[in-house]
TrEMBL record:
It comes from Marilutibacter chinensis. GO terms for molecular function: hydrolase activity. Its EC number is 3.6.1.-. Residues 39-174 form the Nudix hydrolase domain. NCBIfam families: PRK11762.1. InterPro entries: NUDIX_hydrolase-like_dom_sf, NUDIX_hydrolase_CS, NUDIX_hydrolase_dom, Nudix_hydrolase_domain. This is ADP compounds hydrolase NudE.
C-alpha cells in the first residue's frame, strides 16, 4: 500500500551538539495531527567500510566505544568530510583506522541507524585489492586490526564485543554481494 507522506505544518529547531533536534508538526492523510521529533546530522553522512584482504577475510578494528564504555570490534567507519565522495571518505578512513588503502571500492547501499527519529545515513562500502598505507587519524590511540573469516560470521555475531548493528548488517550484506559476484 502506498501512502501520501504527512504534511509538515511547522518545524522548530534546537541545537543538540553535532545534531540539530527538530520538532515536526505533522498532519497525516486521515487528518490526525501529531508532533514528532527527529535528529538531523550536521555533516555529509558517513561510511561503513568492509575491507577485504581476500574474498574470505574481512579486517575488523577494535576501538574504544564511549557509548558502552568498552572496547568493541567493528568495521572501519567515519564521517564524510565536506567535498568528499563516499568512495574518497571510505579510502581515507581505511588508511586512518586500519593502515590500508584500496584499489577497488564499491558503494553497495545506504544504511540508516534509527530512521523513525534520525536522518543519519551511512554508505556501505566494500574495499578490495588492499595495500598498506597509513594516514594520521583522529583516534586517541592506534586501533587493533583483527582479520576475520567471513565463514565464521556466526561466531562473530555472538561475541559480546561485537554489537554495533551497522557492522553486523554490513557484513551480511557484503557476504551476499560477494556470493552474487562469484556466480
Amino acid at each position: 500500500m502506498s501512502r501520501r507522506l504527512p504534511t509538515i505544518h511547522g518545524i522548530t529547531e534546537h541545537d543538540a551538539g553535532p545534531y540539530r533536534l527538530e520538532r515536526l508538526d505533522l498532519e497525516f492523510g486521515n487528518g490526525e495531527r501529531r508532533r514528532y521529533e527527529r535528529l538531523h546530522g550536521r555533516g555529509h553522512g558517513a561510511v561503513v567500510v568492509v575491507p577485504l584482504i581476500d574474498d574470505d577475510t574481512v579486517l575488523l578494528v577494535r576501538e574504544y566505544a564511549a557509548g558502552v564504555h568498552r572496547y568493541e570490534l567493528g568495521l572501519v567507519k567515519g564521517r564524510i568530510d565536506a567535498g568528499e565522495t563516499p568512495l574518497q571518505a571510505a579510502d581515507r578512513e581505511l588508511k586512518e583506522e586500519a593502515g590500508y588503502g584500496a584499489r577497488s571500492i564499491t558503494v553497495l547501499r545506504a544504511l540508516t541507524l534509527a530512521p523513525t527519529y534520525m536522518s543519519h545515513e551511512a554508505h556501505l562500502v566494500v574495499a578490495r585489492d588492499l595495500y598498506p598505507e597509513r594516514l594520521p587519524g583522529d583516534e586517541p590511540e592506534e586501533l587493533e586490526v583483527v582479520p576475520w573469516k567471513l565463514d565464521a560470521l556466526h561466531e562473530l555475531i555472538l561475541r559480546e564485543d561485537f554489537s554495533e548493528g551497522r557492522s553486523i548488517a554490513a557484513l551480511f550484506i557484503a557476504r551476499e554481494w560477494l556470493r552474487m559476484q562469484a556466480r
